[in-house]
Amino acid sequence: MPWKSRLVDAEWMLRQNKRLKRRLSEAKLRLSNAAVEDVETAPARGLERAVLLRLASCVFVTDNLNILISGATGTGKTYLARALAQQACRKGYRVLYRRASRLYEEMALARADGTYPKLLSRLLRVDVLVLDDFGLGSMRDADRQGLLDVLEDRHGNSSTIVTSQLPPRTWYEYLGDPTVADSICDRLLHTAHRVELKGPSRRRPESRGASHENSTADVPGVAEETER
């Protein structure tokens, strides 16, 4: 290969790496090294390799579909969500990670200081929004309405990945308000790939070291973020 071509290729690769680094930084994934290659697939776990490969292709993003990941605590929901989010970053999509409780707080502050429309606009511009730990605590009326506002804007325009200990069939009851629950579930459930992770907690000592997916289990403050 001529040296000029090698220089062009090197420059192109440098720019691509810079863009990826910026996208990962903007995504706020915290565990930015989560990778679909390290996600363990097994029928007993509730995740087939063919399903993972299909999700990793990121066709769900181009089709504006959601991914709902449910399962007991410790089954790897957060890691899977972050791995798919990182894959989306690698394919050039804009991604943002938020724990559900943190997003509700952010929306409350935005309402108070008058920047709520700006926040909704920023969330709309994100190709993939990761909403982690949905359903852990009770929701206030403002939280429900805020979530509906976000999903209404994004419905049919972008993708949302939700992780939850609650199975999707219970979300209507969890949301409480029938009218808002109808609207939220309609926008989340009817255009979604569903993954229900099973098996023992991957935080148990015998599970650690089995794969890269659990490689951070002994790092203080990281295990509970990566293996839900």
Structural notes for this entry:
This protein is an alpha/beta fold and 228 residues long. The protein has a single domain, classed as P-loop containing nucleotide triphosphate hydrolases (Rossmann fold, 3-Layer(aba) Sandwich), CATH 3.40.50.300. 48% of the residues lie in helices and 12% in strands. The protein has a 5-stranded parallel sheet with strand order 2-3-4-1-5. β3, α7 and β4 form a beta-alpha-beta unit. It is globular and about 60 Å long. The relative contact order is 0.17. Residues 214-228 have low confidence and may be disordered.
Q: Which descriptors apply to this entry?
A:
single chain, 228 residues, alpha/beta, Rossmann fold, 5-stranded parallel sheet, 5 strands, 48% helix, disordered C terminus
Task: Give a short overview.
By secondary structure, the protein is of the alpha/beta class. It has 10 helices and 5 strands; from the N terminus they run αααβαβααβαβααβα. It has helices at residues 3-27, 49-56, 59-62, 77-90, 100-113, 116-124, 141-154, 171-175, 178-189, 223-226; strands at residues 66-71, 95-99, 128-132, 159-164, 192-197.
Unreliable runs: 214-228
- Compute the CA-based radius of gyration: 18 Å
| Major sheet characteristics | 5 strands, parallel
Strand fraction: 5-15%
Q: What is the topology, as strand order, of the major beta sheet?
A: 2-3-4-1-5
Structural class by secondary-structure content: alpha/beta
Q: Total number of β-strand segments?
A: 5
Tell me, what is the CATH class? Alpha Beta
| Mean of all residue-level pLDDT scores | 83
- Give the count of structural domains: 1
Q: Per CATH, which architecture?
A: 3-Layer(aba) Sandwich
Helix content: 40-55%
Annotation field: number of helices = 10
Looking at this structure, what is the CATH superfamily?
P-loop containing nucleotide triphosphate hydrolases
End-to-end Cα distance, whole Å, is 47 Å
